[in-house]
Structure formats: C-alpha cells, structure tokens
Amino acid sequence: MHNILVIDDERAVRTTIAEIMEDEGYTAFTAEDAVSGMEILSQKEISIVILDVLLPKLGGIEALEKIRAQWPETEVIVISGHANIDTAVKAVKLGAFDYLEKPLSIDKLSTACRNAILLISLREENAELKRNAGSGIELIGDSPQIEQVRSLIRQAAGSDARILITGENGSGKELVARAVHKLSSRANAAFIEVNCAAIPDNLIESELFGHEKGAFTDAVSRRRGRFELASGGTLFLDEIGDMSLNAQAKVLRAIQEQKIERVGGEKSINVDVRIVAATNKNLEDACNKGAFRQDLFFRLNVIPIHMSALRERPSDIEPLLHHFLGEAGAGAFTFDDDARTCLTEYPWPGNVRELKNLAERIAVLCNDDHIGRDDLENLFLPHNGGKAPDNAPSGGTSCQNILDDDILKIPYSHAKELFEKRYLEYQLKKNDYIMSRTAEAIGMYPGNLHAKLRKFGIEKKV
Q1: Residue pLDDT, tens place only, 58-110
Q2: What is the largest CA-CA distance in the chain?
Q3: Class of 144-308 per CATH?
Q4: Which of 169-183, 201-215, 427-441 has the lowest mean pLDDT?
Q5: Per-position DSSP letters for 124-158, written without gaps between them
Q6: What is the CATH number of domain 3-131?
Q7: All CATH 3.40.50.300 domain ranges in the chain, comma separated
Q8: Residues in contact with 242: Cβ distance below 8 Å, sequence separation at least 6, in sequence order
Q9: Residue 397: which pLDDT band, with cuts at 50, 70 and 90?
Q10: Whole-number Å distance between alpha carbons of 75 and 4
Q11: Model confidence pLDDT, tens digit, residues 114-153
Q12: pLDDT beyond 50 at 456
C-alpha cells in the first residue's frame, strides 16, 4: 500500500484525483497549498506527490524544489492547466518524475503513478542488492569448525528461532547472519544490519525504533527505524554486547511483543522480524557483572553459533587466501612450504579480515606468481624492513611477524604513509632506481612518482 498526496488549490480537482487514486488501490491525502502539503509529508510516508504548478503561498515549482531536497525518495508528478515548454523543462530538471497537462487523462495519470511506484520499488531493490553485494554467504574452508557452523546454519535457517553468533572481530560473524537469512523463508525480504557499537547511546533508540517529527531537536521529519525496515525479514544486531542497558530493555520488549513505538510517538506498530545477534564479548560474564540483561541474553541465545578464530583453524587459511585473491582479480598464485608454514604459524589477530587484506596486498604488489617466505617477510612488513624483532623467538619463527600488528596500533594516516614509503623504496630498489622503469612498473606517472619521493624524503640513488 502506497500513499499519494494531491496538492491542488481547486477542491474539485484534488478530490477527484484522490478518489481515482483510491480506486487504484492507493491511500490518498489532499492539501490545498504546498505549505499544508509539506506538513503532511513530514507526518506521513508519501510515495508520490501530485503537485499543481499554480498554488497560493508557495508556487508549485518552488515547492517541487523543496520536496525533492527534503524528501528525495518521494516522486513528484507535476500537473498544470497553463502548460508551457519552459515550465515543463524546469520541472523535469528539478527532479519531477513526470509533467502532465490539465485537463488530466485518467489513463495517463494512472500510468505515471504506476511507473513512479515501479521506479521506487526498483530503487529499493537496488539499494538492498548493493548492501548485500560482495558480502557473500559462502563459508570457505573445510575445517571441522566450519563444517559444524554450516550444519548449524542449515538446521536453524528454516525456523524463525533467534540466533546468537559469537566470535572475535573479523572472524566472519556477519557472513553467518547473511547465510541464515539467505537460506530462510525470509530471503526475499530485507536484511537490515545495525552495528550497536557504532551508534551513540543517545541515538540508538531512534535508530532502532524510528522517531516522529519534533521528537528531539534534529527530528525534522518522521523516520522509520530498523525494526520497521526489517519487518518481514531479518534484523542483524551486530556487537549487541555494546548496547546500553536502557536500549537493551526496549529491545527485549520489542522482541517479546513484536511491537515498537517510535521515539516521540504514542502508537504501537506491529513488526515481524527475525533477530540474529552477534558479539565478540562473553555475554554470560557481562550478565554476571550487570553489564548485560540476563533475560535478553536468554531471549537471544536460542541457537548459539560460534565462529572460531582463524588461528584455531589453520587448514582454512590457504583456501580462504586463494578465494580472496580471486575476488581481488589476481591470477593464480602458489605458495612454497616455508610460506605455508609462515601463514599457519602467524596468529592472525585480525582474523579473516586481516587475511583478506593480505590477499589484496599480494594482488597489487607481488609481480611473481610464486610466493615464498622472503616475499611475505620483505613485502608485507613495511614497519621493520622484513626483519624479525630482536626479541622474536629463535628457531626460524620470524614468520610469526609477517603481519605483526604493531602497524595496526598507530593512527591510520601514519600507517598508510609508512606502508606507502616502504612500498616505493622496495619498488625503486627492485627497478635499479631507474625512475621511468619504476613508474611504469607501478602504474604511476613519473611526475607523480617524483612528488611522492619528495614527500617521503626518499633518496633517488644512481
């Protein structure tokens, strides 16, 4: 059911159009001027505005510009009894979906509305596809831990039972949530993700449940929350362990009653969502310390799924690495035994996410399709030149430091510059300090390369 707003100063015209729209299955609202119309827009979720050009208080073209700026998801069909080509062109340039002349053809108006609704639906579908693009649901690996996770996903997906996914950051908890959604009866509905750790406490309630206009200072219009957007589908509450106790209480109520209230609203709204939550914290310990509600924990932990850290399933490292290399558009790479030993002995503090970063580095920086220990140590340790620290364990375990996480502990801008400088130094040396050859090898204009060398204070040896 889509809402349509008719703004026309002639009562007979707006009443007739509203009746036609309701016959077509829409819910119609009317306004005699643009100011009143925008008040309705701020209170209702309007899909299409049918807007007259000649209006009191605020002209239709000016109103069109304001509507498109403030409600960009709403399509506007402009109508006029005094049509001219200049007005039509201006309306279309300002974002009008269509421009129709009075007296209106019922068939043309109905067709325009149907096409506008089709565009809105396609836009929403495209947005959902973009959210899911590249995220994938395939769990790569053949370790016993991954096989167990696959089995649990297959068993749990067919029900609406709530799922709690645990595991370290970067271990693949979101992939599990998406896999559950894709294999469920809700697969064609929305998968809505909320990162509870990334939303400030004073905004989490509005983000989850939405708000009414004027509910707080910045609430300039009505907004639906994630529970409403996910209705009929799956709501993924990532990092649920970082949610405040106050928000936990409201989430518990929403789960129990399958109803929510927008911030500043008085009306209960029915929602039908499947909850999948994830955390890198031990929620049982958090419950004992009073940092997490025990009743919410029991509600969420109907089906527990644990994603093991990458270091606990070393047999998955190489299949994952080849998978990520393929995603990065790289050709086939082979790894010698020493390189494989380095990869399996490294503790991977960033888990699968860190392994993906390594694959992207190999794809961009490595010219040889055969990877050895030296490649890993020299190419991917910009912070220490490929050398093990003085306190590294003896016995050939310098590979433990291939991707030492020291670089992860400094600000992003510093880490980026450190890596870039090391990369340029490596490429210069590899190309015998010949500027033209180096620039060609790394795909950079010689002038830009000179500028980079000056920036990082790199000497151009002869």
Answers
A1: 999 999 999 999 998 899 999 998 767 888 888 988 999 999 998 889 889 99
A2: 90
A3: alpha beta
A4: 427-441
A5: HHHHHHHHHTTT-------SHHHHHHHHHHHHHHT
A6: 3.40.50.2300
A7: 144-308
A8: 196, 197, 279, 281
A9: very low
A10: 10
A11: 999 988 888 877 766 655 544 445 789 989 999 999 999 9
A12: yes
Structure tokens at 179: 């896999």
| CATH 3.40.50.2300 domain range(s) in the chain | 3-131
Q: Are 399 and 436 in contact (CB under 8 A)?
A: no
If you ran DSSP here, which 8-state letter would residue 240 be given? G
Domain with CATH 1.10.8.60 in the chain: 314-456
- Whether the per-residue pLDDT at 325 is higher than 60: the answer is yes
CB burial of residue 235 (10 Å; 0-12, 13-18, 19+): buried
Nearest in space to 153 (alpha carbons), one of 187, 192, 129, 188: 187
Alpha-carbon torsion angle 377, 382, 383, 389, nearest 10: 10
CB atoms within 10 A of CB 227: 26
Candidates 149, 150, 117, 138; CA nearest to 1 is 117
d(CA 357, CA 351): 10
Which DSSP letter does residue 262 get? -
The yes-or-no verdict on residue 220 having pLDDT over 80 is no
The CA distances from residue 106 to 18, 202, 419, in Å, are 12, 48, 64
For domain 314-456, the question of CATH label 2.60.120.200 is answered with no
